[in-house]
Amino acid sequence: MINIVFISILAAAAVIGALAGLVKGYLKGSVYAFAVLLTFAVERAVGAMVKKGSAGFTVGILAATFGALVIFTILCEIFKKVMAARMEARRTLSGYENHDKLEENDTYILDAVDRKDKKSYKKLRKARKKIKTKSGAFGVLNRIFGAIGGALNGFVGAFVFLSFVVMFVHISQIQAVYSMFSDFIASGLWQNIFGAFALDIMVITVMYFTLRSGFNSGICSALTLFIVLGLVGAFGYASYSLASGEQISGMVEGLQNALPAALGGLSHTLAVILTAVIFFLLSLVVVIIAAVLCTKAVNKFTENKVVSKVDGAFGALVYTAVVFVILLAFGGIAHTISDLAVMENFNVYMDKSLFADCLYGCNPMQSVFDKIPLRGLFVKAE
User: Fold this and answer.
1) Helices first, then strands: H and E counts in the chain
2) 258 CB contacts (<8 Å, ≥6 apart)?
3) What pTM does this model have?
4) Which 8-state DSSP code applies to residue 194?
5) Per-residue DSSP letter, 52
6) Burial class (CB within 10 angstroms; exposed 0-12, middle 13-18, buried 19+) of 52
């Protein structure tokens, strides 16, 4: 039953995505699935050439996957630019080709207006709308690639979500739910196809959206966010320190006396908190001003197209590096308890993966994470 539902949802997502892509076109659509699937294909090709666990496996898989993801994303965007330029050129040519028809139609429209002939005016307006500029063969390709890309986006997006659900059920072993999924999980469809690819496609998806988010935001926007968050944290700490000190003890005592006597010893703590909140809210004016000024400065700085691209490239690099380190830490810490019973099913998926396992079993920083004293906590809990 679950396998039918799984496949039906994938098919429905692909059909809906194809229709949406056909309407939007390739230029307005996302290249997510193209980039992720092509990157996954390169990762598997490299994995077939380099034995898992060998000296060059981790470096080879990481370099090939990250390199392919960046290259295919850029190539897809370049193809968009080329297609847009060719379509615009064809539309311009079509406009010149239809120039005489449009001029003639406009003359008839003006004549109908002068004669106050509403019937002829409406008829001529409809006729004018039919004289359209055409995008030529690239316009057709735009729709075709849009439909293909939309179908793949819908399919891969649904696959990532459904696979996450199935893997969570399998790993968590929640009996009330697991009994519904057990047959599907044990089937060859999941074990040999979907389940074998799921984890790598998930992680590549995370890296793709991290890369795009970093490029779209830019390093300057990220720095602005860090500055604002830093100011919020600093003012929060300063407000609490001021309320807890002796400098404004009179204000704290005044608030304490205004609170109900039934609160007892809590009245002083609440008075300190209220005082800190008041000063923090006042300090937010400075934070808001700083945020506005920084945002305007960033927008002004990135108005230049070259600067904007460089800013986006550095943003993508920083965002990707941060998320990659987080994934390395998560995988490294998880691997310190890989021999526990609770990790048995998780290990099955990691054994079938390549890129994801570079963050887990083949983690280049595993020796560092092995020194973190967390294992004892899990062993006791077990």
Assistant:
1) 15, 0
2) none
3) 0.75
4) I
5) T
6) middle
**Token pair recorded at residue 253:** 């005592």
Pair of tokens at residue 183: 């047959």
User: What is the number of other CB atoms lying within 10 angstroms of the CB of residue 301?
Assistant: 13
CB 337 within 8 A of CB 366: no
Collect all residues with Cβ–Cβ distance below 8 Å to 234 and sequence separation of at least 6.
none
What contacts 278, CB < 8 A, 6 or more positions away? none
Between these two residues, 196 and 261, which has the higher pLDDT value?
196
Q: How confident is the model at residue 59 (pLDDT cuts 50, 70, 90)?
A: confident
Give Cα 23 to chain centroid, integer Å. 23
Reply yes or no on whether the pLDDT at 374 is more than 70. no
- DSSP symbols for 296-313: HHHHHHT-SHHHHHHHHH
Q: What end-to-end distance do the CA atoms of the chain give, in Å?
A: 34
Domain extent listing, the chain: 1-98+133-186, 99-131, 218-382
pLDDT at 372: 66
Mean pLDDT of 198-213: 92
Gap between the Cα atoms of 181 and 200, Å rounded: 21
Q: What is the CA radius of gyration of the chain?
A: 30
Q: Are 67 and 43 in contact (CB under 8 A)?
A: no
Could you report the per-residue pLDDT of 25-49, keeping only the tens digit for each?
998 888 999 999 999 999 999 988 8
Q: Two tokens at 347?
A: 């290990």
Are the CB atoms for 162 and 10 separated by under 8 Å? yes
**Alpha carbon of 339 to those of 54, 164, 167, 185: distances in Å?**
21, 22, 19, 22
DSSP letter for each residue of 53-89: TSTTHHHHHHHHHHHHHHHHHHHHHHHHHHHHHHHHH
Q: Which residue has the higher pLDDT, 119 or 285?
A: 285
Separation of alpha carbons 318 and 210, rounded Å: 10
Question: Is it the case that residue 2 has pLDDT exceeding 50?
Answer: yes
